[in-house]
Amino acid sequence: MKRLLALFTLVFPLALQAQSKLAQNIIDDFSNRAAYHYTLKNDSITGYIAEQLNRSGSGGIDVDATMFKLAEDQGAFDASLKYLYQYSDCNRQRFIENLKNLGLKNNSIFPIATYTANKYKDQSKDLLEDKKDFLVTYTGPNTGKVPPPATVATVQHNADGTTTTVEAAEGTAEAIQGGVADSSAAAPVADTRDWEVKPIFKTRNAEQLLTMYGKENVILRDGSDISGNATGKNAFVVYPDTDNELQIEMDGDEGNTLLFSLEHTKWKTPFGIKPGDPLEKLVKINGRPFKFNGFEWTDSGLVSSWEGGQLNGKGVEVVLRANNTGDPKLYDQVTGDKTIRSDNAALKKLNIVIQSITFKSN
């Protein structure tokens, strides 16, 4: 017993420290990704953070400069996490998804989520009330900023994780910005286009995609899997940074993998299932209940077995998320290292929806 007590005495302070402090490499990862996204036009996440930093005074006199060096200002860094948590409706899983949307490394995401949730869990009510007031006068993201010359190389280098030159990195940012601008300009005619994805499954090279959608609407970037982790492969992205963003990984004769991770897409997806669709719709299409991994764990929310249903063997992968996590006792029933059945009674009050989905051509 004395040995156990001694061990507890040693470990407990370390556990507390792990929850109350972030490693510098994790801080740098968030700072670099936030800086990169701040160069993109109409970036909703960093635009929201920057405006809140500006209004609260946490961003200093020059909020644009602060957004490019959050790692150098602990106060601004913590405030940026707070406002991202607020942007995510103080919902841990939504917060994690937004960290993934920023492109953080997988080993940075969960430490930041734990750090932020612990730091601001008692402020959730006030943060949500403040958000309501904020949105009354908020006019939208004002991003697409140019980083200070001294920080261009660092920001762009860390953002894509490569050793490309400054010129190449700047070109990438310009390509993304140009794609967004051109996509926005083309919005009036977008509805007349064919949003069917079947032809995309048949493409085998960039030239075919450029012919179909125009070079201003297609970029090349590091691919992500359905859970937001880097695949180590290049991927083509059609209509980047819009609701209709579509990632395509080509694997020669093995076929293409299409990833959808944003709601409100206009694409006509296989089986008619899209991000944001409710659990009930997915069960109905599959024809029977299925199993998925517990939330807040490895491969959180990933469907692990279609249980012989209609989607079995069809090249469909789905990750689910819970929109309503306000009841810890209820949510804890479906979190952790366990397999959950889609007909679990606890899911009914959690508002389970599709977070992301991939389709692999045969």
From TrEMBL:
Query: What keyword terms does UniProt attach to this protein?
Result: Signal
Signal peptide limits: 1-18
Answer whether the UniProt record assigns the keyword Signal to this protein: yes
Kindly indicate whether the keyword Signal belongs to this entry: yes
Q: What is this protein called?
A: DUF4296 domain-containing protein
Native source species: Chitinophaga jiangningensis
